[in-house]
Amino acid sequence: MSVVGITKVAKRYGRVTALEDVSMTIADGEFFGLLGPSGGGKTTLLRSIAGFIDPDDGEISIDGKPVKNIPINKRDIGMMFQNYALFPHMTVTDNIGFGLSVRHRPKAEIEARVTELLRLVRLEGFGERKPRQLSGGQQQRIALARALATNPRVLLLDEPLGALDKKLREEMQFELKQIQRNVGITTVFVTHDQEEALTLSDRIAIMSEGKVLQIGAPRDIYERPRTRFAAGFLGTANFFEGTVSGREGGLTRILLAGGTAIFTRDEAPEGRSVTIAVRPEKFTVGGATPAPASDAQVNRIAGRIAGEVFAGNSVTYRIDAAGRIVTVYMQNRMTERLGPDAPVTLTWDPAHSIVLED
């Protein structure tokens, strides 16, 4: 297990900046996610840690030692690729033991390590099979076992579950996290899948256009995104633009276009234009004329149902309110369906109105 340090790392390809002044520290034993859209810089950063890419500026270190002049095969890093890159002509045993074989480790040591890893990934008895005889999930676990075979200090995963279908991907998220916990290895993985990032990561770095926009625990970033991009990329968010018009009852009042006022517990200077983010599940949907709430400090806006998407255990509503379409998630607990164009009132706690930095 090891600490990975990244300090002011930059990488440019002509006029294109792939990484710009990227800094972060990945803790010993941490499962760290790099989340962002295609072209955001996350894969460039991962490959820079591995040694496939040489940064133009900055420093990458492992346990405080710079790795710039250390060749790939000497960095003591395990890497698992999106397509797994298993050797089709080799057995599972030979695939897992390949890294040890090229290091000329004794045969008995290789056999013992392969047996240990097959037990870890719960594929005992599969050693003589070829990759084509395995399911996608089994291939993923064999690729992971191969990456772990040499007892690397750091494990790098490039879209590790991207080749799996949705159901299997969800199952393997829990498998992968459990294996990482059992081994205790410092792990960095790349994904563009927000659910995967939330499920696997101890911490997440959200990246866009080569920059790190926010780093934090999944729950912290989800509940308190700092930017519009972070709010919209990690989950879904509704955005309200308005102007701070003062304080009232310990809350900040935001005046929206059209005169509707909403409130937040965040502070902002009077007269400032702000964007508020509210997650879809934070709303409560009531009738057009709800009974007075016991808590006066609750946001309320009137609207009408503009559409719905039924997903079995939940319903996503599109509600025309305050001059915009608001997305609302509701558990499927209703005895009556909210029909098209039905008048409703949206309520939510001002604590869930997040003032964004941009």
TrEMBL record:
It catalyses: ATP + H2O + polyamine-[polyamine-binding protein]Side 1 = ADP + phosphate + polyamineSide 2 + [polyamine-binding protein]Side 1. GO terms for molecular function: ABC-type polyamine transporter activity; ATP binding; ATP hydrolysis activity. Residues 4-234 form the ABC transporter domain. The keyword Transmembrane helix does not apply. The keyword ATP-binding applies. GO terms for biological process: putrescine transport. GO terms for cellular component: ATP-binding cassette (ABC) transporter complex. Pfam families: ABC_tran (PF00005), TOBE_2 (PF08402). It comes from the Bacteria. Its EC number is 7.6.2.11. This is Spermidine/putrescine import ATP-binding protein PotA. The lineage of its organism: Bacteria, Pseudomonadati, Pseudomonadota, Alphaproteobacteria, Hyphomicrobiales.
